[in-house]
Amino acid sequence: MDNYIITISGTQTVDDESDTIDITTSASYTERSGKKYIRYKEYNPNSDGEYVSNTIIIESEKKIILRKLFEGKPTELILDRGVRHQCMYTTPIGYMSIGIYAESIVTDISKNGGTIVIDYTIDFNTDIQSEHHLEIVLKKKGET
Question: Under CATH, which number does the domain 4-140 receive?
Fold first, then answer.
């Protein structure tokens, strides 16, 4: 049941130039086996009327997994503070292997809502290509 509102603000910096994307949409929140799950859909600008399904899995205070089902193709980014993970990322032209290194993860999420703030880098062949700052705010619908 989508009884929450999720606001996501993501800033990407490449060569000292930054771009920010903001998304606000309905979401659901559940807890299971010690993990926290936030699910939401976002509009797919590359197709007519289709949505991208997203799941944020909070495994611990230092590890978060971002899953996306984009045009039937799964993507998973593993953000694990202080650990570099090699991930397969789906793009409109196919899969790409990228390195993800989470420098900082601060999470304060419960059934009452809360926030997640993540700073991470993306690299290709260990050469850092971009820096990212992600802020996620989860609120129960009807609360200000």
Answer: 2.40.128.20
